[in-house]
Amino acid sequence: MCVDGYYGKRCSSGCSENHCNPLNGICAECKPSYYGHRYGMTCPSGYLDDVCDREMGTCHQCKPLFKWPKCINCLDGYWGKDCRSECPNSCRSCLSTTECTKCKDGLHGEKCEKKCSYGCLLELCDQDTGVCSKSCKANFTGTYCKQCIPGMYGGNCSVSCPENCYNGTCDTRDGTCLLGCIPKFHGRYCDLSCPDGCLDCMCRSNGHCDACIPDYYGNGCNITCSNNCINSSCNMSGYCNDCQPGYFGIFCSEHCSQHCLSGECLRNGSCYSCQSGFYGTKCNRSCRKNCQYCAGSWSCKSCFNGFYGKICQDKCSYCKSGTACDIDTGYCKFCEDGFYSNKCKSKCDSKCQSCDSSSGQINECLKCKIGRYGRNKTSEFYHCNIRCSRTFWNVPKIVFTATVTAIMELVGKGA
């Protein structure tokens, strides 16, 4: 038998406490705050009265604010050696005032300072990532359940997007249509109808038409095109596509010059050509007095009958009445009866009523005076040297003239 405090065959081993079995060293009874058979393991600090199960060390009852059954950790909301320090309001449990181990429902982050998305079911999310723990509430979608499902908007995604939004898509915050409107509507909420004058009832988000129905223009296609536009057709600004004859300008509101030939002109008011006696792009400048057509004040293209020269300043001589002479030389094309030469200044032979201006011979008649006849066989002109018989003088003048003419024709044929 060993004395108290020792055990073993030779009582050479000491007990961890004073009282133990002298054969195997097992303690007969543990001191307060200890448990175990031999070596005296310390009870956790949270045990009430420092008493724990001798065999397993389990706690019979914890001190206040410690978590049973191990009495090691603090109750939720408390921390510290004696669990008397309160965790921050956002923490369910913590290790200090700056390190939360678990957040209260609806919060996440290292200090539980962030709110879980409203769209998370039960508003629960992962403390580290903020990803919803279960799933999204009805009408919410996305990793964090922050977006509304297509067609819904509002703080709780419970309001349907306006029915005229294109593809049914709208801003989840205020319901404005993000992709524009379906045809025939406009506005932030696509609740306004496009103007009636819009082609195919199509308009932009501000209500301005993309194109107008025929005969109208303006942002709202409510202004009538000018009647001076051909077919009353104009663009969105009211500019005529083309003008009615006699008008010009972007709105075809200006009259072509009264001196434009046929009264028509180009879109800028320039005449295609001018009336006689006028020149200029708009035919609003007068030619010189005797010019019929001119290109400028000092350049006549043609003269009125009876005049010639660069500015038609010279008078033709004895050209046949109603005919013109060459504008550069003054040469006549036809002479008055009794005259010949280039300018008809030379008198024909007295026997001739008219003579050839190209032969240069005064007795080369084209036509004989009444009472004379005779033809030159070599030149084919008349020489008019033969007097008619006096018998003809008692014939009435009209008959006499016709007869003389017939005789002259016979003579010309070789009589």
Protein model, in words:
A two-stranded antiparallel sheet has the order 1-2. Strands 3-4 form a two-stranded antiparallel ribbon. A two-stranded antiparallel ribbon has the order 5-6. The model has no long low-confidence stretch (mean pLDDT about 80). It is mainly β and about 425 residues long. It is rod-shaped, with a radius of gyration of 64 Å. It starts with 5 loop residues before the first strand and ends with a helix. The protein is built from 1 helix and 32 strands.
Quick overview:
The chain is mainly beta and 415 residues long. Helices cover 4% and strands 21% of the residues.
Give Rg in angstroms.
64 Å
Chain-averaged pLDDT: 82
Strands, count: 32
Task: Give the neighbour order of strands across the main sheet.
Answer: 1-2
Shape from CA axes?
Answer: rod-shaped
Offer a few descriptive terms.
rod-shaped, mainly beta, two-stranded antiparallel ribbon, 32 strands
Topology of this protein?
Layout: E1 6-7, E2 13-14, E3 34-35, E4 41-42, E5 78-79, E6 85-86, E7 91-96, E8 99-103, E9 107-108, E10 114-115, E11 140-141, E12 147-148, E13 152-153, E14 159-160, E15 185-186, E16 192-193, E17 216-217, E18 223-224, E19 247-248, E20 254-255, E21 278-279, E22 285-286, E23 291-296, E24 299-303, E25 307-308, E26 314-315, E27 339-340, E28 346-347, E29 352-355, E30 365-368, E31 372-375, E32 382-387, H1 397-412
Antiparallel strand pairs: 1-2, 3-4, 5-6, 7-8, 9-10, 11-12, 13-14, 15-16, 17-18, 19-20, 21-22, 23-24, 25-26, 27-28, 29-30, 31-32
